[in-house]
Design brief:
With 419 residues, the chain is an alpha/beta fold. It is 30% helix and 19% strand. It folds into two domains: 258 residues, Aconitase, domain 3 (2-Layer Sandwich); 149 residues, Aconitase, domain 3 (2-Layer Sandwich), CATH 3.30.499.
């Protein structure tokens, strides 16, 4: 029997010719990413001295301050300062601050490469799977071990194959696709398994759109989400001056623990109701629900195509008087391109507040915290109780177009009405 893409990546990283689900291996890490939230300040700075005070390979360590940037209070400012100083002290030259959420920055800077193993102190490190990179989130204690050894102990996961055939209809997006997938399998249905996505509906997506899918694989409990790298991926990497890595692909006779098949042509806009990501319904089942804030951004849906689709909906429209529409591009470069192309102007003229590229509002740290009784529709990845502020607030998850449509009407609205 052949191997899956995930098994091949782990085999390469562990120096083995073959592995199979259930095997335990020591794998060599290609990229170790820390953010400001769960990076050096948590346990690493205190404990690394006890382990020799050295880092195995400084060129393979990336630190990205994104959660607390820009700082909203003194505590956040001090965390940023600590992270900045620690990176300098240990000679980590790949330090980035204030240019966007870590997973978008990793992609834009060419760290998410086909066939490689990436670990990060953020659960949505699975985003790298769009490039055929086994990206997975780990805790700060595990990261400490990686920093001093360059290795991580892994159990080889099983892989579930999700095949999406057909073509997505107008007004339906990759966010709808992944929400429907998570609804099918449940929030724990892929726990410590790999979600591999295939089919013509997947290959038709741009690299930006695919990143939404792999980003949210962890919301079904997945160890990572993977999409076979193709010419679109290689063109993206070439455009940013990155290498093509070592692309690996699932064999035709690879063993998958489960297989799911969907027809994209039948999909309609989806929305996740509070307070679970798998609490998903067709948007017409939630139409009319009153909201107070609409948030467009994050490492899930703050890319150029997301802002562009929202701008199509908002062109010539005005945000409802009761609504706060917040827009945060997924990176500084995306903001610049959207600004150059008039997208930011369209959003602002409609009544949007344009924010810095950061993680802030997504997890209720700054720049858009919800108060008691407020409801938000968001293009982010989680709608847990209290995720974006007060524990008595509510979050609906949907595509950027759906967020924009709701911003116009002040309630959950099918975006196809405006396209």
């Amino acid at each position: 029997m052949g191997m899956t893409m995930a098994e091949k990546i782990i085999a390469r990283a562990s120096g083995k010719s073959t592995v199979q689900p259930g095997d335990f291996v020591w794998a060599n890490v290609d990229i170790a990413m820390m953010d400001d939230l769960l990076g050096p300040r948590v346990i690493i700075a205190d404990q690394i001295q006890k382990l020799g005070n050295t880092i195995w390979d400084k060129d393979k360590v990336v630190i990205i301050s994104d959660h607390y940037s820009p700082a909203a209070n003194i505590t956040q400012a001090e965390i940023l300062q600590f992270t900045r100083n620690w990176a300098k002290e240990y000679g980590i030259n790949k330090y980035f601050e204030g240019i966007g959420p870590c997973h978008q920055v990793l992609a834009e800077k060419g760290f998410s490469l086909p066939g490689t193993l990436m670990v990060g102190t953020d659960s949505h490190t699975t985003t790298a799977g769009t490039f055929g990179c086994f990206g997975t989130g780990i805790g700060s204690t595990e990261m400490l071990g990686v920093l001093v050894s360059g290795q991580i102990w892994l159990r080889v996961p099983e892989t579930i194959l999700f095949t999406w055939s057909g073509t997505l209809p107008p007004g339906v997006y990759s966010k709808d696709l992944i929400l429907r997938t998570i609804k099918e399998i449940g929030q724990a249905g892929a726990t410590y398994k790999v979600m591999e996505f295939a089919g013509e509906a997947i290959t038709a997506l741009t690299v930006d759109q695919r990143m939404t899918i792999t980003n949210m694989a962890v919301e079904a409990g997945a160890k990572t989400g993977l999409i076979a790298p193709d010419e679109k991926v290689f063109e993206y990497l070439t455009a940013i001056g990155a290498t093509k890595g070592e692309p690996l692909y699932s064999d035709s006779d690879a063993g998958f623990s489960q297989k799911f098949e969907f027809d994209a042509a039948t999909l309609v806009p989806q929305i996740a109701l509070p307070h679970e990501v798998d609490n998903v319904v067709n948007i017409d089942q939630a139409a009319g629900e009153i909201i107070h804030q609409a948030y467009l951004g994050s490492c899930t849906n703050g890319r150029y195509s997301d802002l562009a689709e929202a701008a199509k909906v908002l062109q010539g429209q005005k945000v409802h008087p009761r609504i706060r529409l917040l827009v945060s591009a997924a990176s500084r470069s995306i903001y610049h391109q959207a600004l150059k192309d008039g997208i930011i102007e369209t959003l602002s003229e409609a009544g949007a507040m344009i924010l810095a590229p950061s993680c802030g509002a997504c997890l209720g740290l700054h720049s858009g915290i919800l108060s008691s009784g407020e409801r938000a529709i968001s293009s982010t990845n989680r709608n847990f109780l209290g995720r974006m502020g007060h524990k008595e607030s509510e979050i609906f998850l949907a595509s950027p177009a759906s967020v924009a449509a709701a911003a116009i009407t002040g309630k959950i609205t099918d975006p196809r009405n405006y396209l």
